[in-house]
Amino acid sequence: MSNLYDDPKYYEIAFSFRDIPAEVDVFEKCFKLFSRIPVKSVLELGCGNSPHMEELIKRGYQYTGLDSSKAMLEYSRQKASRIGAEVNIIHGNMVDFSLETLVDFVYITLGSLCVKNTSELMTHFNSVAAALKKGGLYLLDWCIQFSPPSGNGETWEIEKDGIRVKTTVKSKVINPVEQTFEETIVLEIDDHGEHHTITGKNVKRAIYPQEFLCLVRSLKDFEFVGWWNNWDLSQPLERTSEINRPITLLRRV
Fold first, then answer.
1. What is this structure's pTM?
2. Domains (range + CATH), the chain
Protein backbone atom coordinates (compact mmCIF):
# COMPACT_ATOMS: atom_id res chain seq x y z
CA MET A 1 0.00 0.00 0.00
CA SER A 2 1.57 3.32 -1.09
CA ASN A 3 0.86 6.98 -0.41
CA LEU A 4 -1.86 8.75 -2.37
CA TYR A 5 0.47 11.45 -3.69
CA ASP A 6 3.44 9.25 -4.61
CA ASP A 7 2.14 8.38 -8.08
CA PRO A 8 0.43 11.40 -9.69
CA LYS A 9 -0.54 9.44 -12.80
CA TYR A 10 -3.15 7.41 -10.91
CA TYR A 11 -4.35 10.43 -8.94
CA GLU A 12 -4.82 12.33 -12.19
CA ILE A 13 -6.97 9.53 -13.63
CA ALA A 14 -9.01 9.25 -10.42
CA PHE A 15 -10.10 12.88 -10.55
CA SER A 16 -10.31 13.31 -14.32
CA PHE A 17 -14.13 13.50 -14.21
CA ARG A 18 -13.81 17.28 -14.32
CA ASP A 19 -14.40 19.36 -17.45
CA ILE A 20 -11.30 21.50 -17.19
CA PRO A 21 -12.00 23.92 -20.10
CA ALA A 22 -15.50 24.52 -18.68
CA GLU A 23 -14.03 25.25 -15.24
CA VAL A 24 -11.57 27.74 -16.72
CA ASP A 25 -14.57 29.31 -18.49
CA VAL A 26 -16.05 29.84 -15.00
CA PHE A 27 -12.79 31.41 -13.83
CA GLU A 28 -12.98 33.87 -16.71
CA LYS A 29 -16.64 34.67 -16.02
CA CYS A 30 -15.66 35.47 -12.43
CA PHE A 31 -12.82 37.69 -13.69
CA LYS A 32 -15.23 39.59 -15.93
CA LEU A 33 -18.03 39.95 -13.40
CA PHE A 34 -16.26 40.33 -10.06
CA SER A 35 -12.54 41.09 -10.33
CA ARG A 36 -11.59 44.72 -9.91
CA ILE A 37 -8.23 44.22 -11.62
CA PRO A 38 -7.17 42.66 -14.95
CA VAL A 39 -6.21 39.02 -14.42
CA LYS A 40 -2.95 37.85 -15.95
CA SER A 41 -1.39 35.70 -13.20
CA VAL A 42 -2.96 32.86 -11.20
CA LEU A 43 -1.94 30.81 -8.16
CA GLU A 44 -3.30 27.32 -7.51
CA LEU A 45 -3.00 26.14 -3.92
CA GLY A 46 -2.69 22.40 -3.36
CA CYS A 47 -2.07 22.19 -7.08
CA GLY A 48 -1.17 18.49 -7.14
CA ASN A 49 -0.90 17.45 -10.79
CA SER A 50 -1.93 20.99 -11.90
CA PRO A 51 -4.95 19.95 -13.99
CA HIS A 52 -5.84 23.51 -15.04
CA MET A 53 -2.30 24.56 -15.90
CA GLU A 54 -2.25 23.75 -19.61
CA GLU A 55 -5.67 25.29 -20.29
CA LEU A 56 -4.75 28.46 -18.39
CA ILE A 57 -1.47 28.78 -20.28
CA LYS A 58 -3.28 28.30 -23.60
CA ARG A 59 -5.46 31.28 -22.67
CA GLY A 60 -2.49 33.48 -21.89
CA TYR A 61 -2.27 33.33 -18.09
CA GLN A 62 0.90 33.02 -16.04
CA TYR A 63 0.58 29.94 -13.80
CA THR A 64 1.98 29.36 -10.33
CA GLY A 65 1.31 26.12 -8.47
CA LEU A 66 2.03 25.42 -4.79
CA ASP A 67 1.95 21.97 -3.18
CA SER A 68 3.63 20.03 -0.37
CA SER A 69 4.16 16.88 -2.47
CA LYS A 70 7.47 16.83 -4.33
CA ALA A 71 6.25 13.96 -6.54
CA MET A 72 3.21 15.96 -7.63
CA LEU A 73 5.32 19.05 -8.31
CA GLU A 74 7.79 17.10 -10.45
CA TYR A 75 4.84 15.69 -12.42
CA SER A 76 3.58 19.24 -12.99
CA ARG A 77 7.03 20.38 -14.10
CA GLN A 78 7.18 17.56 -16.63
CA LYS A 79 3.75 18.52 -17.98
CA ALA A 80 4.88 22.12 -18.39
CA SER A 81 8.09 21.00 -20.09
CA ARG A 82 6.16 18.89 -22.61
CA ILE A 83 4.20 21.92 -23.78
CA GLY A 84 7.20 24.27 -23.57
CA ALA A 85 5.60 26.46 -20.91
CA GLU A 86 7.35 28.59 -18.31
CA VAL A 87 5.57 28.12 -15.00
CA ASN A 88 6.34 28.76 -11.34
CA ILE A 89 6.13 25.54 -9.31
CA ILE A 90 6.65 25.98 -5.56
CA HIS A 91 7.18 23.40 -2.83
CA GLY A 92 5.38 24.77 0.20
CA ASN A 93 2.58 24.57 2.76
CA MET A 94 -0.71 26.27 1.88
CA VAL A 95 -1.20 27.26 5.51
CA ASP A 96 1.84 29.53 5.72
CA PHE A 97 3.47 30.63 2.48
CA SER A 98 4.70 33.71 0.65
CA LEU A 99 5.34 34.71 -2.96
CA GLU A 100 8.00 36.98 -4.38
CA THR A 101 5.46 38.50 -6.80
CA LEU A 102 1.76 39.10 -6.11
CA VAL A 103 -0.84 37.36 -8.29
CA ASP A 104 -4.21 38.48 -9.65
CA PHE A 105 -6.22 35.33 -8.83
CA VAL A 106 -5.94 32.47 -6.32
CA TYR A 107 -7.90 29.22 -6.37
CA ILE A 108 -8.11 25.86 -4.63
CA THR A 109 -10.12 22.87 -5.86
CA LEU A 110 -11.63 19.57 -4.69
CA GLY A 111 -11.84 20.55 -1.04
CA SER A 112 -8.06 20.67 -0.77
CA LEU A 113 -8.01 23.29 1.99
CA CYS A 114 -6.09 21.23 4.59
CA VAL A 115 -6.12 23.16 7.85
CA LYS A 116 -6.30 21.32 11.16
CA ASN A 117 -7.47 24.09 13.49
CA THR A 118 -8.68 27.68 13.66
CA SER A 119 -5.16 29.08 14.02
CA GLU A 120 -4.08 27.41 10.77
CA LEU A 121 -7.24 28.64 9.06
CA MET A 122 -6.50 32.26 9.99
CA THR A 123 -2.84 31.91 8.97
CA HIS A 124 -3.96 30.50 5.63
CA PHE A 125 -6.17 33.49 4.85
CA ASN A 126 -3.43 35.87 5.93
CA SER A 127 -1.03 34.12 3.54
CA VAL A 128 -3.51 34.33 0.68
CA ALA A 129 -4.14 38.01 1.39
CA ALA A 130 -0.39 38.69 1.30
CA ALA A 131 -0.05 36.91 -2.06
CA LEU A 132 -3.11 38.43 -3.81
CA LYS A 133 -3.36 41.90 -5.31
CA LYS A 134 -6.11 44.17 -4.02
CA GLY A 135 -9.25 43.71 -6.11
CA GLY A 136 -8.25 40.14 -7.02
CA LEU A 137 -10.34 37.05 -6.35
CA TYR A 138 -9.95 33.88 -4.26
CA LEU A 139 -12.08 30.92 -5.42
CA LEU A 140 -12.63 27.90 -3.17
CA ASP A 141 -14.12 24.68 -4.57
CA TRP A 142 -15.81 22.29 -2.12
CA CYS A 143 -13.98 23.81 0.87
CA ILE A 144 -17.07 24.79 2.88
CA GLN A 145 -19.02 21.97 4.59
CA PHE A 146 -22.67 22.61 3.79
CA SER A 147 -23.47 19.31 5.50
CA PRO A 148 -21.58 17.60 8.34
CA PRO A 149 -18.94 15.04 7.33
CA SER A 150 -20.47 11.55 7.24
CA GLY A 151 -19.15 8.04 6.90
CA ASN A 152 -21.34 7.14 3.95
CA GLY A 153 -18.63 7.82 1.40
CA GLU A 154 -18.67 8.11 -2.38
CA THR A 155 -17.24 5.76 -5.01
CA TRP A 156 -16.61 6.09 -8.75
CA GLU A 157 -14.53 4.39 -11.46
CA ILE A 158 -12.63 5.87 -14.41
CA GLU A 159 -10.63 4.07 -17.09
CA LYS A 160 -7.96 5.73 -19.24
CA ASP A 161 -5.30 4.22 -21.51
CA GLY A 162 -5.97 0.73 -20.18
CA ILE A 163 -5.73 1.79 -16.53
CA ARG A 164 -8.85 1.49 -14.38
CA VAL A 165 -9.01 3.42 -11.09
CA LYS A 166 -11.78 2.92 -8.54
CA THR A 167 -11.88 5.83 -6.09
CA THR A 168 -13.56 5.84 -2.69
CA VAL A 169 -13.74 8.95 -0.50
CA LYS A 170 -14.96 8.74 3.10
CA SER A 171 -15.03 11.12 6.05
CA LYS A 172 -15.46 10.53 9.78
CA VAL A 173 -15.73 13.04 12.60
CA ILE A 174 -12.80 13.05 15.00
CA ASN A 175 -13.72 15.87 17.40
CA PRO A 176 -17.07 17.65 17.03
CA VAL A 177 -16.01 20.51 19.32
CA GLU A 178 -12.83 21.20 17.38
CA GLN A 179 -14.76 20.51 14.13
CA THR A 180 -12.09 18.09 12.94
CA PHE A 181 -12.68 15.14 10.66
CA GLU A 182 -10.54 12.56 8.89
CA GLU A 183 -10.86 12.27 5.13
CA THR A 184 -9.73 8.98 3.58
CA ILE A 185 -9.19 8.54 -0.16
CA VAL A 186 -8.57 5.02 -1.50
CA LEU A 187 -7.56 4.28 -5.09
CA GLU A 188 -7.94 0.67 -6.24
CA ILE A 189 -5.91 0.35 -9.42
CA ASP A 190 -5.93 -2.15 -12.27
CA ASP A 191 -2.96 -1.16 -14.42
CA HIS A 192 -3.13 -3.56 -17.38
CA GLY A 193 -3.78 -6.47 -15.03
CA GLU A 194 -1.44 -5.33 -12.24
CA HIS A 195 -3.49 -4.57 -9.14
CA HIS A 196 -2.54 -2.37 -6.21
CA THR A 197 -4.07 0.08 -3.73
CA ILE A 198 -3.14 3.63 -2.80
CA THR A 199 -4.48 5.31 0.33
CA GLY A 200 -4.35 8.87 1.61
CA LYS A 201 -5.60 10.28 4.91
CA ASN A 202 -5.93 13.94 5.90
CA VAL A 203 -7.21 15.50 9.12
CA LYS A 204 -9.13 18.68 8.36
CA ARG A 205 -11.02 21.32 10.26
CA ALA A 206 -14.58 21.59 8.98
CA ILE A 207 -15.70 25.09 7.96
CA TYR A 208 -19.46 25.62 8.09
CA PRO A 209 -21.22 28.26 5.95
CA GLN A 210 -22.48 30.73 8.58
CA GLU A 211 -19.19 30.41 10.44
CA PHE A 212 -17.40 31.14 7.18
CA LEU A 213 -19.43 34.30 6.61
CA CYS A 214 -18.61 35.47 10.15
CA LEU A 215 -14.96 34.71 9.52
CA VAL A 216 -14.92 36.74 6.31
CA ARG A 217 -16.59 39.67 8.05
CA SER A 218 -13.86 39.56 10.70
CA LEU A 219 -11.09 39.60 8.08
CA LYS A 220 -9.94 43.04 7.02
CA ASP A 221 -8.44 41.76 3.78
CA PHE A 222 -11.43 40.01 2.13
CA GLU A 223 -15.06 40.51 1.26
CA PHE A 224 -17.61 37.84 0.41
CA VAL A 225 -18.73 37.89 -3.24
CA GLY A 226 -20.98 34.83 -3.45
CA TRP A 227 -21.32 31.06 -3.63
CA TRP A 228 -22.84 28.88 -6.32
CA ASN A 229 -23.78 25.28 -6.96
CA ASN A 230 -21.87 22.91 -9.23
CA TRP A 231 -19.62 25.56 -10.79
CA ASP A 232 -22.65 27.34 -12.25
CA LEU A 233 -22.94 31.10 -11.68
CA SER A 234 -26.66 30.90 -12.51
CA GLN A 235 -27.22 28.70 -9.42
CA PRO A 236 -26.63 30.74 -6.24
CA LEU A 237 -26.66 28.46 -3.22
CA GLU A 238 -29.36 30.52 -1.54
CA ARG A 239 -31.79 29.13 -4.14
CA THR A 240 -30.40 25.57 -4.26
CA SER A 241 -31.97 22.66 -2.41
CA GLU A 242 -29.37 19.99 -3.22
CA ILE A 243 -25.78 21.16 -3.06
CA ASN A 244 -23.06 19.52 -5.15
CA ARG A 245 -19.50 20.76 -5.58
CA PRO A 246 -20.15 24.36 -4.50
CA ILE A 247 -17.74 27.17 -5.30
CA THR A 248 -17.21 30.18 -3.05
CA LEU A 249 -15.72 33.49 -4.13
CA LEU A 250 -13.93 36.14 -2.06
CA ARG A 251 -12.39 39.40 -3.15
CA ARG A 252 -9.25 41.04 -1.77
CA VAL A 253 -9.94 44.54 -0.42
1. 0.96
2. 2-146+206-252 (3.40.50.150), 154-205 (2.20.25.110)
